[in-house]
Task: structure prediction
Amino acid sequence: MFAALTPGLAIGGAAERIRVLPTIVYTFIWTTVVYDPIAYWVWAPGGWLTKLGVLDFAGGCAVEIASGFAALAFYAVLGKRRGFGEEKWQPHNHLNIILGFAFLFFGWFGFNAGGASLVSGRAGIAFMTTNIAGAVAGIVWVALAYWQQRRFSSFHFCSGAVAGMVCVTPAASLVSTWAAFPMGAAAGLFCFCAVEVSLRLGIDDCIDVFAVHGVGGVLGVMLTGVFANKHVIGLDGAVSKGGLINGHAYQLLIQLAAAAASAAWSFGVSYLVLRAMDCVPIFRFRVDAAAEDHGLDFTELGEAGYSFVRDLALAHAPASRPHSLSKPLITEAPTPPPGTAAAIEAIIIQHPHDSRPMLKGSPSSGTVAELPSPK
Result:
C-alpha cells in the first residue's frame, strides 16, 4: 500500500502538464529504484539506517520525504504550467477538496495506527497522535492564513491538517500523545512558510507536495529524534534509547542522516530517471501547449469531470475531427449583424489561462483579439 501511494504523491506536483503513458512507466521505475531502496534502508533488518538505529514508524523517509523531493525533481525537469504566475489560479471545486480530505484524514488512521504490528497501546497512541497533530496543524494554518488574508477558509484547514499528519507519521507510535501538540504546531508553521516561499520563488508545485510532504517529512523525522519516548516504544516489548527527551541526543544525528540520505537519493535518482525518459520521444513527459491549454482530461483521457465542459468542447471541435481539441474553444453561432450587441456576445470566448474574456475578430477569420475594456 505504501509503495502504491508514494509515487502518486510525487506525480501530483506535476499535474496539468504531464502525459499519462510515460507517467505509468515512470511510476514502476520510480517505485523500484527510489522507494524500494529507501524502505529497505529504514525498515529491513539489514538496512544501514536500521543498523544506525533510525526511528521512523510509518514512512517519514520512504513516503513523505521521498515523494516531496521527487515532486521537486519533476518541477526541475518539466518547469511551470503555462500561465503560472501570470494570473491567480484557484481550486475549481472546494467541495471536492473537503470530501477528499475527509477520506484522507480517515485513511490516515489506518496508515499510522494500522501500521502497528500488534493491537496494543502503541496502536492506540498512533491513532491519537495522528488525530491531534492533524487538528492542531490545521488550526495553526488557518490562523496564519487569517493573519495574512483576513479570511477563514476550509481549504487552509485541509492543507494544515495534512501537514500535521505528515509530520507525525514517522513518530506516530514512538512518542507520548502530548508530543503531537508541538509537532502539529510546528508542522502548521513550517509548512505554511514553505508554501509561501515556494510561491515567491515561482516553484510550480500543483498541490504543494514538496512544501507539505517534503518539508513536513524532514521536520517529522527530526522531531521524532526529539520526542521519541523509550517507555512508549517499550509498550510492545521493543527496546530503544528514545530521543532527546530521554537524554539520547545522538538520536538527532541519526535522524538527520536518514532525512538527508532519503532526500538526496529521491531527488537525484528521480531527476536522472526523468531526464533519461524525456530523451525518448514516446516517453516525453510534457504535453504540447495546445493540449495543456485545453486540459489533459480532454487530450489525454478523452473525458471531462463536468459534462457541460465536454459538450462545449465537442460542439466546437472541427467537423472533420470531432474529437480533436487542437483549437481554442469558440462559439460558432450564426453571424449576427456586425456592430450589434449580439455580434459581440456571440464571439466572446474564455481562454483557459486568463480570467479576461477574449474577442474573436470575426466568426470565420480565426483570429483572436482582446475584448476592449468598458469605459
Q: What stands out?
A: The beta strands are 348-350, 357-360, 368-370. The longest helix spans residues 121-149. Residues 320-334, 339-375 have pLDDT under 50 and may be disordered.
